[in-house]
Amino acid sequence: MDSRKRRKPKNKRPAATPQQRPRSRMIFDDVEVPQVVEPRPNCSICGQPIESIIEAISEPDGGLSHFDCVLERLREREHVQEPDSVSYVGHGNFAVVTKDEEGRYSIKYRIQYESNDDYANVKRQVEESKK
Ligand SMILES: [Zn+2]
Question: Cα(24) to centroid of ligand 1, in Å?
């Protein structure tokens, strides 16, 4: 009775340290049992898990990528150099922006990245369901 009473569930639980691992992106040999319950998609550009869907961009093929990875990819693809830079301008669109001598940004051209097709399809279905 006594010995059983001592076995509290408190001791059964290993120290929960979900946040103790340093956030390293490129380490693969340090594989541990993930603490996250929900499955996380992998970035289609760098292959690393996407921690937050909010910071992910959907690819035309239906995959997901890190926001930062997309920025980097566009920067390379568009050969963007100082003082120009790539910015997200909303609704799945990026833009190459440039800065003038006074430090004001202006958009040189837009890059549509996330496909509007899905969005348009959903919208159309909603419209049609109203009829
Ligand atoms: Zn990535």
Answer: 12
